[in-house]
Amino acid sequence: MNEKDPELSQLHDRLKHHINEQKSNWNSFVYAQQMGFYQGFDEISLPGCRPTEKRLERYDIAKYLTKEKIALDIGCNCGFFVLHLSKFLKHVDGVEINPYLVNVGNDTKKFLNIGNVDFFTSRFEDFSTNKKYDVIFSLANDNTIDGNTEFSFNEYVQKIQSLLNKNGHLMFETISPDTYDPKQFEPKRRLLEDRFTLLEEKMVKSEYPINVPERRFLVFEKS
């Protein structure tokens, strides 16, 4: 997409306005505050700390994504990853507590004319739906440093389990502290393996934060 496109420039201005509003009005911790955007999105020529298209390539999960499946992204930030996923799935929901980031996602969704995505301004604890999902993404989000999560890890996993279809898949990426501390992550791994079948595990490159150059990425299946 041409960065000099006037419509694209106008989109960038709107998105940066939401980020500036967030800086002024959002009282919780702001991820990637210096960069502006936690997620980058090549499709709209917007850089960020974690490049959306490259993230999906690194996860290497194309075989789990089909146009017959619906997915949920927990803590979707500005929604760029959700919008990119929409190319490969029937429908994607993103839940995010920060309303300014949801505004970023909705403006980008409208600009790209994407019709199979919905964003919900909510904590995961409060998120309510009648849907059952085929794929759920928990990408570095089972515990957050902004103080907005209340679930224990057990409660968090229980809710995911209740929202996931039989034979559905959980895409799980570790939060920063868990990546290199086996003692901290092993209890979580044991709980996850008690509830799901582990299919894949790998280390994937991560640009943010800079002191965490890789994260652990696991694919689970619900029996």
**Helical residue percent?**
25-40%
**Gap between N and C termini:** 42 Å
Percentage of residues in strands: 15-25%
Order of helices and strands: HEEHEHEHEEHEHHEE
What is the molecular shape? globular
- What about the largest sheet? 7 strands, mixed
User: Would you tell me the structural class of the helices and strands?
Assistant: alpha/beta
Mean pLDDT, rounded to whole units?
94
Q: Rg to the nearest angstrom?
A: 17 Å
CATH superfamily, by name, is Vaccinia Virus protein VP39
Low-pLDDT windows of residues? none
Number of domains: 1
CATH architecture: 3-Layer(aba) Sandwich
CATH C-level name: Alpha Beta
Which strands sit side by side, in order, in the main sheet?
Answer: 5-4-3-6-7-9-8
CATH topology-level fold name:
Rossmann fold
DSSP summary, beta strand count: 9
- How large is the count of helical segments? 7
